[in-house]
């Protein structure tokens, strides 16, 4: 019984720590990077839509700053799509979404290029091309990017579950408990029947079992603590901040596309009102970046105030003044400050996740080797301790 329990404990100890190490590594190297890439794709496409509309409003030759920003966002989306393609299971819905996003992004960029070329010639049909590009971005690309983001979030959630290896750990706990009781029972039995108080090899085996228990407790307690911190202080805030960033970028796009349409209040302005009322900077997941969120809330309030000024000019019939205010450098700068604040909060939470997930892997690789070796040593000591007693009956 001691030999069987020792060998089973060693085997399960190796499998448990190997599973935990593999899950933690997958979370660090695949699931969480996929979440960040999916967030990058979504926000880059949203920002590209916003920037393209802003550049179009300027008329004629677009401002170099906006052109560079638009091209940078398209490049970011393309790069993130290439990286995400390597992290999604082949043939899965996520892999298909990445393929469709890659094709759709190329088609979107072509429509924007056509709209810009026509707009430079002063032809009104350019607005139709821009509207078609924005419709493709909003109604096809952004929902696909959201689906990919949700898939990545599920992968992260599953990654935490795999990293914790609850069933393996439960089995290991049962086996270690049984081994400890078996060792104690064997020593009590030998003490009664052989009139020897201690069996030194079995005492040593019990000590090694205690070492295995303490080592396992330290490693797995550390892992679970850092996994919980990575989830609560890293993954959850990153997902919340991705939603906020996408929302404020959509607001900016709504503002520009309302002016591009030259139709006053319309579906884009209604969408602006709807999402402006729904956005919240007081998510409990963002308590650790509360200061930055307070800044973002104030900056968003200034952005909405400027938007009302733009709408007042446009609704009052002064379209040119509304466009001038919308594309003015100080307006763009105020919005840039807002997005930078959200980006800073996201960088802060990404750093927390990376630190915690690295710390969560502490000791797992060593315990994968140490656990089975200790179990083999326990089995060997049990055999050494019992063999002389068995020989006494021959």
Structure description:
With 394 residues, the chain is mostly helical. The chain has one domain (2-391). 88% of the residues lie in helices and 0% in strands. It contains eleven helices and no strands. It has helices at residues 2-58, 64-87, 93-120, 125-164, 166-194, 200-261, 267-278, 290-315, 319-327, 329-360, 364-391. Helix 1 packs antiparallel against helix 11 (364-391), helix 4 packs antiparallel against helix 6 (200-261) and helix 6 runs antiparallel to helix 7 (267-278). The radius of gyration is 31 Å and the shape is elongated. The two termini are 21 Å apart.
Give the SSE layout.
Blueprint lengths: L1 H57 L5 H24 L5 H28 L4 H40 L1 H29 L5 H62 L5 H12 L11 H26 L3 H9 L1 H32 L3 H28 L3
Reading the helices and strands in chain order gives: HHHHHHHHHHH
Multimerization state? single chain
Shape assignment? elongated
Integer-rounded radius of gyration: 31 Å
The tally of strands reads 0
| Tally of helical runs | 11
Q: Mind summarizing the main beta sheet?
A: none
Distance between the termini: 21 Å
| The number of domains | 1
Q: What structural class do helix, strand and pairing data support?
A: mainly alpha
Mean pLDDT: 88
Fraction in helix: over 70%
Identify low-pLDDT runs.
Answer: none
State which percent range the strand residues make up: under 5%
Features of the shown structure:
88% helix; mainly alpha; 11 helices; 394 residues
Question: How do you describe this structure in short?
Answer:
The chain is mostly helical. It has helices at 2-58, 64-87, 93-120, 125-164, 166-194, 200-261, 267-278, 290-315, 319-327, 329-360, 364-391.
